[in-house]
Amino acid sequence: MWSFFETVRHRHSVRHYQRDMPVEPEKLHAVLEMACAAPSAGDLQAYHITVATRRATREALARAAHGQAFVAEAPVLLVFSADPERSAAHYGERGRRLYALQDATIAAAYAQLAVVAAGMGSTWVGAFDETAVRRILGLPAHLVPVALLSVGYPAELPAPTPRRRLEEMVRYEEPPSGGGSGPLGDAGG
Ligand SMILES: Cc1cc2nc3c(=O)[nH]c(=O)nc-3n(C[C@H](O)[C@H](O)[C@H](O)COP(=O)(O)O)c2cc1C
Hints:
Elements: H1 4-10, H2 25-36, E1 47-52, H3 55-64, H4 70-73, E2 76-82, H5 84-117, E3 121-125, H6 130-137, E4 144-152, H7 166-169
Antiparallel strand pairs: 1-2, 2-4, 3-4
């Protein structure tokens, strides 16, 4: 099993899957457990996961994802939906608008890393017709599908994609001392 850092570094979007390699139920279960281990606002876990495996459903979801063919190629699709009212009941508008969305996407991110740690690959798919996905999966009206993960054994080794430089994206309030090797923050009050 890879360390967390290796797992993150080895995660690349996989858009081709081995057709003769279905996902083992125990691996899928482990991935779902890791998704549900994610933090959530007030521990309300304001999201829902649909596991789609039937070919007809996967093909319909690929069409709903504007014809992205790899969506149907993956043996398993995990659809993460936010449950805004579950969060709103406790946190009002902020829960409805923000927390439920964060709950669902953090769970999806955990699942995506768990997929890699389990020796498989995935792609996060956000480009889809929400109404079509709702209809295909028969989702109740209170759920909002926000992310779809295609999951399976990779049939390609994707090259790493570029990232913006850390310096461009991170601002230290207080530059690290000692050429960057000094300790950060003070532990006391
Ligand atoms: C919110 C979001 C939406 C995305 N939607 C799609 C998508 O619809 N189709 C797709 O092929 N990839 C999609 N991706 C994957 C990105 O293209 C990919 O993560 C990015 O190019 C970086 O490549 P990497 O995942 O290999 O590091 C999405 C990723 C995120 C986080």
